[in-house]
Amino acid sequence: MPRLLPLFPLNLVVFPGEKLNLHIFEPRYRQLVHDCLAENLTFGIPLFTEQMRELGTEMRILSVEKTYPSGEMDIRTQGMSVFRIREFFREAPGKLYAAGTIEAIPDDNTPDPELRVRIQHCLQQLYDVLGLRQLLQRLPINYRSYDLGHHLGLSTEQEYQLLAATSELERQEMIAEHLEQVLPILLETERLKERARLNGHFKNLTPPAF
C-alpha cells in the first residue's frame, strides 16, 4: 500500500541493515529529524545523482549523539528496507523537507550456499591482495550481500544495481561475477608490482637441470 515518507536525498546508496552516521545542518532536515523523533517516523534516503532516482532505503533513527547550539545534530541511523518512489514532492505538506509516495519492494533473502562458498573464496583472495583480511573478520557470521556492498570496489551505479535486486540469489550472482572479473586484474597488477620491485636487484636463481 503506497504511503507518504519524508525523504533525505543523498548522492550515495544505503543498504538495508547498514548503519549510517549523519551530521544534520540544513533547517529542512533538522525539521525532518525533529518530526521523526516526535512522531516515531522513519525517513527515506533515495539516491540523487544528476536526478532523483526511484529507489531508496527506508531509515530509522537509532539515536541523537549530539545537539549543537546552532541546532545542528549528529544522528545515528540504520537502513531497514528498499522502496520505490511513485510520486515525489519537493516539500511535504506544510513542511520544509521533501517527501514521496512510496511502495515497499518485496525481497527474497534466501541465499544460495554454493554461491556463498564461491564468494567467500574470492573475498579471501581479494582482501589478501589488498592487505585487508581484517575486513573479512569483521563480517557477521551469517552476512548478507548487503553487508559486502561497500567493500567490493563497486561504483555508485553498481551499488544502485545491487540495491535494485529483489533477491539474495540475484545479489550473490552480481557479486560473484564482479569479483571474478576484478580478481585476475588485481592479481596481475600485484605480479607486475613485484617484478618492478625486483628489477635491478641481484637474483639467486636456480637454473633448470637438463
Quick structural gist:
This protein has 210 residues and is of the alpha+beta class.
**DSSP summary, beta strand count:** 6
Q: Please report the distance between the alpha carbons of the first and last residues.
A: 78 Å
Question: What is the fold named in CATH at topology level of the largest domain?
Answer: Archaeosine Trna-guanine Transglycosylase, Chain: A, domain 4
Q: Give the overall average pLDDT.
A: 89
Helix-and-strand structural type? alpha+beta
Q: List the total number of helices.
A: 6
- The secondary-structure element order is EEHEEEEHHHHH
Q: Indicate the percent of residues in helices.
A: 25-40%
Domain Lon N-terminal: 4-181
InterPro entries: Lon_prtase_N (IPR003111), Lon_prtase_N_sf (IPR046336), PUA-like_sf (IPR015947)
Pfam family, one: LON_substr_bdg
Protein name: Peptidase
Describe the structure.
The protein is α+β, with helices and mostly antiparallel strands and 210 residues long. The chain folds into 2 domains: 3-104, Archaeosine Trna-guanine Transglycosylase, Chain: A, domain 4 (Roll), CATH 2.30.130; 113-198, no CATH class. It is built from 6 helices and 6 strands. The protein has helices spanning 27-39, 113-130, 133-138, 145-148, 156-164, 168-198; strands at residues 3-7, 19-24, 43-48, 52-67, 73-89, 98-104. Strands 1, 2, 3, 4, 5 and 6 form a 6-stranded antiparallel beta sheet that branches. Helix 2 runs parallel beside helix 6. The radius of gyration is 22 Å and the shape is elongated. The N and C termini lie far apart (78 Å). It holds the Pfam family LON_substr_bdg. InterPro entries: Lon_prtase_N, Lon_prtase_N_sf, PUA-like_sf. Residues 4-181 form the Lon N-terminal domain. This is Peptidase. It comes from Hymenobacter lutimineralis.
